[in-house]
Design a protein that fits this description.
By secondary structure, the chain is of the alpha/beta class. Helix 3 links the parallel strand 2 and strand 3. It has a 5-stranded parallel beta sheet, with helices on both faces. The longest helix has 22 residues.
Length: 338
């Protein structure tokens, strides 16, 4: 079970063991807090909880703790942090413990990897929980953003706005939750978080400058776009975040080109693709200036830049983005730099 499913609908009982495996620390913390409430109740002090460091504890100490009657309640929760080495060294002992576990205690193993082919891993689902805490991406991440905005902050967040948050802020769930909290406070009594709110708040000056780069490209002011790009890079902004912002803008223009090829008027196609009303006129003029053949290459340009930034070729990141801007502008050389 993925941790997001567990958090959305916790089971009535935990069993005697829970394994938190994966790299996403935000999900691990959230899942563990939920386990604490399920096992120990709503007591915030969690008096029945014991934590051990995986590289500093032996199996006998852990088993003794699990079998000790708690002075503070009927249940105990024992977690082994960073338990990969502990599990590797004590796999047979853990298998033996699980054959006759303490009925009122729950053992939690926090590991990065959890091979499903071992006898231990095969035994856990029968008597406990396996919670995958892997990073989210794609539609899963967008869905998590929308659901978190709704349930944690009481705000609706549509798919496009969620996509933009992801593209600008990255995939770390802890940071994304902070961005949602900021956005919720920013919109105040409004019930929804809109794309314009995300553009304004997420990323601050760097994001505003990325929009300015896109606007300069649409106007054909390649030199200004390159100067703005270099300001961002010189200030230490991530090339991947810059590309994420540009992708958000120009992918919608690419969608409009595809729609217009199906007989839809260009202005309507731009609106249907999610381009802001105030940008439709400038965007239509930009696409006409490019011409259909070049406009149809927009998606390819973005994908090529993304692939190179992710290591497909060894090319300086600055050069990748400069080349992309020149290609998006419909020019063939860097001669427009001021």
């Amino acid at each position: 079970m993925h941790a997001t499913a567990f958090l959305k609908s916790p089971p009535d009982s935990v069993g005697v063991i829970a394994v938190l495996f994966g790299e996403e620390q935000f999900l691990k913390r959230a899942a563990f807090e939920s386990l604490c409430r399920l096992v120990l109740g709503e007591d915030e002090e969690h008096l029945g909880l014991t934590r051990f460091a995986g590289d500093q504890v032996d199996l006998k100490t852990v088993c003794d703790e699990l079998r000790t009657v708690s002075m503070w309640g009927s249940r105990r929760l024992v977690i082994i942090d960073d338990a990969d080495r502990f599990v590797s060294q004590n796999r047979e002992g853990l298998e033996k413990y699980l054959q006759k576990p303490a009925k009122n205690s729950v053992l939690v193993l926090d590991v990065k990897t959890w091979p499903k082919t071992t006898r231990l891993a095969k035994a856990v689902p029968k008597i406990g929980l396996e919670l995958e805490c892997a990073p989210l991406s794609g539609s899963d991440l967008v869905r998590w953003l929308s659901e978190t905005a709704k349930h944690a902050h009481g705000k609706s967040l549509n798919r496009e706005a969620a996509n933009l948050i992801w593209e600008l802020a990255g995939g770390d769930l802890g940071l994304l939750e902070q961005e949602l909290a900021k956005l919720s406070a920013y919109v105040g009594d409004r019930k929804s978080i809109e794309i314009a709110d995300v553009q304004t708040l997420v990323g601050g000056w760097a994001t505003e400058t990325t929009w300015a780069i896109a606007a300069a490209v649409r106007r054909g002011e390649t030199g200004e776009a390159l100067d703005l790009l270099n300001q961002l890079l010189d200030a230490g902004e991530s090339p991947h975040k810059i590309l994420g912002g540009l992708t958000f803008v120009f992918r919608r223009l690419a969608q409009a080109v595809e729609l217009s090829g199906q007989g839809v008027s260009l202005d309507r196609a731009l609106g249907d693709a999610g381009v802001f009303a105030r940008e439709i006129g400038e965007s239509a003029a930009y696409l006409r200036r490019l011409g259909r053949a070049e406009a149809q290459r927009l998606s390819t340009r973005l994908l090529e830049a993304d692939s190179v930034l992710k290591g497909a070729l060894i090319v300086p990141e600055r050069l990748v983005l400069e080349t992309l801007i020149v290609k998006l502008s419909g020019t063939s050389a860097l001669s427009h730099r001021k």
